[in-house]
Design brief:
Elements: E1 2-7, H1 27-42, E2 49-52, H2 56-65, E3 74-77, H3 87-96, E4 102-107, H4 111-119, E5 124-125, E6 133-137, E7 147-152, H5 162-165, E8 167-168
Parallel strand pairs: 1-4, 2-3, 2-4
Antiparallel strand pairs: 1-6, 5-8, 6-7
Length: 170
Amino acid sequence: MELYLIRHAEAVEQTEGLDDQVRWLTPKGRKQQQRAAARLHKKRVRPDLIITSPLTRAVQTAELLLPELGKQPRLIADIRLAADATVEELLTLLKEQEEVGCLLLVGHEPLLSGLAAALLDNELSFHFAKSGCLALQLRKNRDKPAKFLWYAPANGKTIRSAKKGCIPRS
């Protein structure tokens, strides 16, 4: 399975009285995500399914991807991608989607970096910039680590080496 992990774009800051779940994308975040989506289009990313956190900023990020993806993949929200979810819940979600050829997840930090570390066999630590996308190839034998394909920050060059994109765990 091809797996793409995307962190939501820049959102308004959390303030007193503003529930974290309803924080929306800033104008800068929208532009940032549109650039990131165009980059995915150039890379020919064509997911069969997009699963997003149900939080407003993640749903908006996922919606901004749709015009650039060519075909229209199914888009669903799943609480297991919410900011307070666990890596174990995400691993279960992935297992449930084993028949999907290409899956794109939109979520939050530090959950996505935790999932990336688990899939890369916990040998590497990873941090997602806002609107950053990590591409992995999951192996049929899930006992083997995923293959790092590339990481594309919203701004900057695509990183094609796990050694350049990740920090070795000590």
